[in-house]
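Fold this: DDE superendonuclease family protein
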Amino acid sequence: MSQYREEDLVYLDESGMDNREDYGYEWNEKGQRFYSLKSGKRSIRASIMSGLWQGKLIAPLTFEGSCNRKGFEK
């Protein structure tokens, strides 16, 4: 990384969320495991990608669905 100038670097990140990632939590006796059922069905997923360049947020993008390599590179 030291071979690049700071103004030439862009930090990118992608993240996503959907409503199937809820986890059941409840009180339980000490030493006993709590079990919760999940449907396993996927729902609509929202994804976001953006970059950080010279301390500024650039190219924020939100879209419906999952991100793959082609989408990230585009």
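The chain is about 5% helix and 30% strand. Residues 1-19+43-73 form one domain.
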